[in-house]
């Protein structure tokens, strides 16, 4: 009888310990990052920072490219642009820099490098969606950092399946990154 009581007490103690251990493990698990998202002028954006990379998704009712520019200094000048389009089911993307108030060019054409880590995209039901993944910290002069704090985004969309077509819609938004 005494052995049964001891076993019962041990069983109760161990189940309580296991419940505590599970609760402690669950609360110690890292929080999954939440995206920041919004929409303006028919262009939606989503930004997900995860460790040392950020993935930006841009979607618009457009048959051509969509783009995001980070932290312009004067109109488009100084912004770090990520542009992408889908043609015949294949996604294309490029890393640009705003070299003048009303223009941008590929980083590679200005002696820099294309800083895209990954990209993907699709055209579906009249919408173009492109996802870009880049480093949070800028790697060169023609890139901007997606660090904690306030940032300005330039959003745009075009009907052209190339990187030289002009946008038909644009928007400027302010975001607060975690």
General description of the model:
This protein is α+β, with helices and mostly antiparallel strands. It is about 15% helix and about 50% strand. It is built from 1 helix and 11 strands; from the N terminus they run αβββββββββββ. The protein has one helix at about 1-30, and strands at about 35-40, 45-50, 55-60, 65-70, 80-85, 90-100, 105, 120-125, 125-135, 150-160, 165-175. The strands form 2 sheets. Strands 7-6-5-4-10-11 form a 6-stranded antiparallel sheet, with no helix packed on it. Strands 1-2-3-9-8 form a 5-stranded antiparallel sheet, with no helix packed on it.
Feature tags:
single chain; 178 residues; alpha+beta; 6-stranded antiparallel beta sheet; 5-stranded antiparallel beta sheet; 11 strands; 15% helix; disordered N terminus
Quickly describe the structure.
Helices cover 15% and strands 48% of the residues.
Topology:
Blueprint: H1 2-28, E1 36-40, E2 43-50, E3 53-60, E4 66-70, E5 80-87, E6 90-100, E7 103-106, E8 118-124, E9 127-135, E10 149-158, E11 167-177
Antiparallel strand pairs: 1-2, 2-3, 3-9, 4-5, 4-10, 5-6, 6-7, 8-9, 10-11
H/E element order? HEEEEEEEEEEE
Which spans of ≥5 residues are poorly predicted at pLDDT below 50? 1-25
Biggest β-sheet: strands ordered side by side in the sheet: 7-6-5-4-10-11
Distance between the termini: 60 Å
- Main β-sheet, in a few words? 6 strands, antiparallel
> Total helix count?
1
Based on CA inertia axes, which overall geometry fits?
A: globular
Which class do the helix and strand fractions yield?
A: alpha+beta
Beta-strand segment tally? 11
Strand content: over 45%
Which value, in Å, is the CA radius of gyration? 24 Å
What do the pLDDT scores average to? Answer: 88
The helicity comes to: 10-25%
């Amino acid at each position: 009888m005494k052995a049964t009581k001891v076993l019962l007490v041990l069983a109760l103690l161990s189940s309580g310990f296991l419940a505590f251990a599970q609760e402690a493990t669950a609360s110690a698990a890292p929080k999954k990052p939440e995206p920041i998202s919004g929409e303006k002028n028919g262009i939606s954006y989503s930004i997900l920072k995860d460790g040392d990379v950020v993935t930006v998704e841009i979607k618009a009712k457009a048959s051509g490219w969509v783009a995001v520019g980070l932290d312009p200094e004067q109109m488009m000048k100084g912004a770090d642009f990520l542009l992408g389009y889908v043609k015949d089911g294949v996604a294309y993307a490029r890393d640009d820099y705003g070299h003048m108030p009303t223009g941008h060019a590929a980083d590679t054409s200005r002696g820099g490098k294309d800083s895209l880590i990954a990209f993907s995209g699709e055209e579906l039901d009249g919408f173009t969606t492109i996802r870009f993944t880049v480093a949070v910290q800028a790697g060169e002069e023609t890139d901007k950092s997606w660090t904690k704090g306030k940032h300005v985004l330039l959003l745009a969309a075009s009907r052209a399946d190339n990187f030289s077509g002009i946008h038909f819609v644009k928007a400027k938004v302010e975001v607060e990154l975690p």
